[in-house]
Design goal:
Blueprint lengths: L2 H6 L2 H9 L5 H8 L7 H19 L12 H7 L8 H23 L5 H7 L6 H10 E2 L2 E2 L5 H27 L10 E3 L2 E7 L8 E6 L5 E6 H34 L1 H27 L5 E3 L4 E6 L10 E5 L3 E7 L6 H16 L11 E3 L3 E5 L9 H18 L4 E5 L8 H17 L3 E5 L3 H9 L2 E10 L4 E8 L7 H7 L4 H16 L17 H13 L9 H8 L8 E4 L4 E7 L6 E6 L2 E6 L3 E5 L1 H4 L7 H4 L2 H12 L15
Parallel strand pairs: 7-11, 10-14, 10-15, 12-13, 13-14
Antiparallel strand pairs: 1-2, 3-4, 4-6, 5-6, 8-9, 15-16, 17-18, 17-21, 18-19, 19-20
Helix pairs in contact: 2-3, 3-11, 4-11, 6-7, 6-8, 8-10, 9-10
Length: 652
């Protein structure tokens, strides 16, 4: 699967959500390796297993999944010659006990959950190993009866310690007056008595330590020294006997390491399956039908990462294999792409998905997406370039069994070229047999979808009265942008809205003969209002009406007059002509108060100056700053010493 698309569709976030439900390191390892599959039987098997796990969980079952606490360490050292300690064997015993419980539990579910129960039969209880560990070790300590040798040495050690205690008690009773307290202590592994500093020479022995204050001296009496040496020898012998037992148990583990590794893998697999079941339970997800015919029906699909999302339904693969989705910006078109893409990836990863019954998903060999925000005009070129780079990859990978998700195809470039490029791209992807869901604002693509085999229109529903999105996808009909209604609701002044409606009516009523230079009505306005409107046009991001190529070419041959509004193709914006074409064919154009020179071939007519300004209107109001206009007016009346007007380089 395409790595970038996995990131775009937030597949990793789903994996992290799933990770929270795993209880063992081995289960988390399976989750980390989760990836979409393309082999239909493997996908179906995985879905059936998760469905069984979910059903068991919904019945309130408490599945005894081993936590594998401490087992990772044991497993990593098997076969290295390392001798395990008491804590390691305690962890192994607990693990084998959990395996026995899990095997018994799964055997009881053979009728209700036969697929996942089958794994349990491969679990090995290793009774001999567990019984030997439990015989030798209890509560993390080696039992005295673990061997005859250990039993003998501990018996002798106990006798020696008892004799030492009696000897020390006798010494303390004789020297009570010079002791700080009647208490035997241990220093450096040797038994000592606490003597007041000024009297310590009265007891024959060795000073091994003193208190922090220096008032107490810890003395090992000579009378007990020989007994202490005997205890040290017996303690060393005890350690050797314990080492023999630990070595014997380590050998048993080494002999069964293959079975131990298999048990850990099976326990991890169960952890993984039930983690998927818990995740599905939280999403209220179900198993869907699968096919390799390229047919997909998503009934009431919900994005797993979006709460309170309105479920969306769509279908393709019978009669048409691709959809062109249109509608307003806030209508949820992008959510449709992300929902379908992520749910497809989840299904092919063996996950149940949040859809309604009757859903049927195709198995795709690749899912590729181009979904970006496309909101910043300052980044439009880089956004377009990035999209085209991704489209290049799609053109390479496209074919039967490939799902392509494209948001706002060819956005961020010249609309006239954009829709033409879009159609050419869609024709090629369609020829290669790919399934596509494409969102767009180009009206031309609606007509393309209606007239081209393999495509169908779809629209995101919108309440015309409240101007609120309904987040419902209707297939078979093209949508509207509702741009004018939304703009009016957001406060755009009424004259602007009315003029826009007038232009839309002309475009729709005279397609093929619409002339942007022809004024429907000259607007009455004050000079200040005309200047403000001209600056607004110069900063707007609008596309030209879709005239025929012949008309555009004919209009481009006309000379642009100062004050005309033109469309600057390289910038994708409109501007106002401030200087007529020179000998090199360069025209001066003001775009958002910045004066540029642009080749006349890069300009297209938008509105004539007659439509923008009243007759005899002073265009200096548009092109010159207020300060320069005041200076020029003053210069016309009289000479003012030191007064000058500075022009930018492009104005000279």
């Amino acid at each position: 699967m395409n790595t970038q698309s996995l990131h775009t569709l937030e597949y990793e976030t789903v994996r992290q959500e799933l990770m929270r439900h795993a209880v063992s390191y081995e289960g988390r390892k399976y989750v980390s390796e989760l990836a979409p599959m393309t082999y239909l039987p493997a996908i179906q098997r995985a879905l059936e297993e998760v469905e069984e796990a979910k059903e068991l969980l919904m019945r309130g079952a408490s599945v005894p999944i081993p936590s594998l606490e401490g087992i990772e360490w044991v497993l990593s050292l098997l076969g290295t010659g390392y001798m395990y300690n008491e804590q390691d064997f305690t962890a192994v015993s607990q693990f084998l006990n959990s395996c026995a419980q899990l095997r018994k539990y799964m055997a009881s579910k053979e009728q209700t959950a036969p697929r996942i129960a089958a794994y349990g039969f491969s679990l090995q209880e290793l009774k001999t190993v567990k019984e030997e560990i439990d015989r030798c070790i209890r509560l993390g300590v080696i039992e005295t009866g673990a061997s005859k040798g250990l039993e003998r040495v501990r018996k002798r050690l106990g006798v020696a310690k008892e004799r030492l205690n009696r000897k020390l008690e006798s010494i303390m009773n004789r020297h009570k007056a010079i002791l700080q307290e009647s208490l035997v202590s241990v220093r450096n592994g040797r038994y000592v008595i606490p003597v007041k500093r000024e009297y310590h020479k009265q007891i024959k022995g060795t000073v091994l330590d003193q208190s922090t204050s220096g008032q107490t001296v810890f003395v090992e009496p000579d009378e007990s020294a020989s007994l202490q040496s005997e205890i040290e020898l017996l303690t060393a012998e005890e350690a050797r006997e314990e080492g023999i037992i630990l070595s014997m148990l380590t050998g048993l583990l080494e002999q069964e390491q293959a079975a131990l590794r298999q048990n850990i893998e099976i326990a991890g697999m169960y952890d993984f399956i039930f983690a998927k079941g818990k995740y599905a339970q939280g999403l209220d997800a179900i198993r869907v039908a699968l096919n390799e015919r390229g047919y997909l029906r998503m009934n009431g699909g919900r994005h797993p990462l979006l709460k309170d999302m309105v479920p969306v339904s769509l279908e393709f693969g019978q009669g048409y294999k691709s959809l062109i989705v249109t509608g307003p910006n806030t209508g949820g078109k992008t959510v449709v792409l992300k929902t379908l893409g992520l749910l497809s990836l989840m299904v092919q990863s063996g996950l149940l998905i949040p859809v309604q019954p009757g859903s049927d998903f195709a198995v795709f060999r690749n899912v590729m997406s181009v979904i970006g925000d496309g909101q910043s005009l300052t980044q439009s070129l880089s956004t377009f370039s990035a999209q085209m780079k991704s489209i290049e990859g799609m053109l390479t990978e496209a074919g039967r069994g490939v799902l392509l998700l494209i948001d706002e195809l060819a956005a961020g470039t010249d609309p006239g070229e954009g829709f033409a490029l879009s159609i050419a791209i869609l024709e090629e992807l369609n020829r290669r047999g790919a399934n596509m869901i494409v969102t767009t604002h180009f009206n031309e693509l609606k007509a393309f979808a209606a007239a081209t085999g393999g495509f169908e229109n779809a629209r995101m529903e919108f309440d015309k009265h409240t101007l609120q999105p309904l987040y419902k996808l209707t297939i078979g009909e093209a949508g509207e942008s509702y741009a004018l209604q939304i703009a009016e609701k957001l406060g755009i002044v009424r004259p602007v809205i009315e003029r826009a409606r007038e232009l839309v009516a002309q475009q729709q009523g005279h397609k093929g003969s619409y002339d942007p230079w022809k004024s429907a009505a000259r607007r009455e306005s004050r000079p200040e209002a005309g200047a403000a409107e001209a600056r607004e046009v110069g900063g707007a991001d609008k596309s030209l009406p879709p005239n025929s190529q012949a008309e555009i070419a004919e209009k481009s041959r006309r000379e642009y007059e100062v004050g005309d509004a033109v469309y600057v193709s390289p910038l994708g914006r409109t501007g106002i002509v401030y200087a007529k074409k020179d000998s090199r064919g360069m025209v001066g154009v003001m775009v958002q108060k910045q004066k540029l020179t642009v080749n006349h071939k890069r300009l297209k007519p938008y509105l004539s100056k007659d439509e923008l300004y009243p007759e005899d209107y002073d265009l200096d109001i548009v092109f010159e700053s207020k300060e320069n206009r005041k200076k020029r007016k003053l210069m016309g009346k009289r000479h003012v010493e030191g007064l000058s007007i500075t022009l930018a380089e492009e104005e000279k």
